[in-house]
Please model this.
Amino acid sequence: MIYLDSLDIRASKEAGYPLSLPLFENTPRVAFTKPVCILCGENGSGKTTLLELLAAKLKALRIGKQTQSEKQTAFHQAARLCKITQRGKYTRCFYFSAEDFSRYLDDLHRMKEEARQELAAVERDYKGRSAYARSQGSLPYQRALAEIDSQYSRSLEESSHGEGFLSFFQSRILQKGLYLMDEPEGALSYANQLSLMALMDIAIKNESQIIMATHSPVLSSFPGAQLLSVTGHGLEETTYDRLDSLSFLNYYLRNREKVLQDAGIDGKI
Model:
């Protein structure tokens, strides 16, 4: 299902960041033609910037607590100058990134550690008082720990980073959802990237739409996906066999020793 049909970008140097970037000056319109659209390109090409603009325009939910930075303010202002065309109604829009997920796990660990420290302080400060007094003093922190475990799942802390990301994404797959994903391979092995693709397939079969930015030749191979090559000159429809990331990987695997030698890497310690 395609809910977000297109994004019209009113870019100009006067508009300021991010609409002053060459990518947007050269991209008046982005059309999404498949339920899965994959944005491919080098670091700094603008893939994440385009996703951030979409997230701001769509008011997408994000992982964890978000602070309104100067950069986020710029994206929200830019979003007001852009127009989206939709068909149908999605239930909810999520924005996922490996960076947000890492920060989310750090915040989760910090909140639980603070609650445990407060419980230890209650045991120390209430020593000699009644069991009822101790239970009342510890109640807010016990409740905080229970709420965190029930809402976010204790298994997230006990899982590997990649397994936790997959579990988090799986728990948020809704029928008729719209998902923006920024370089999720940062949290995933190649095997777990295949697992993510299986979850994406489930989402698509549940009438969802996915727009993803990635360097991964594995994730880019999602069957039937629309592939857009992102450069400073704009966006261009491409095919899997023409992806720069795939070409480089194939060349490297065939010429590993030469590539390492040309890069000055001899492995001598």
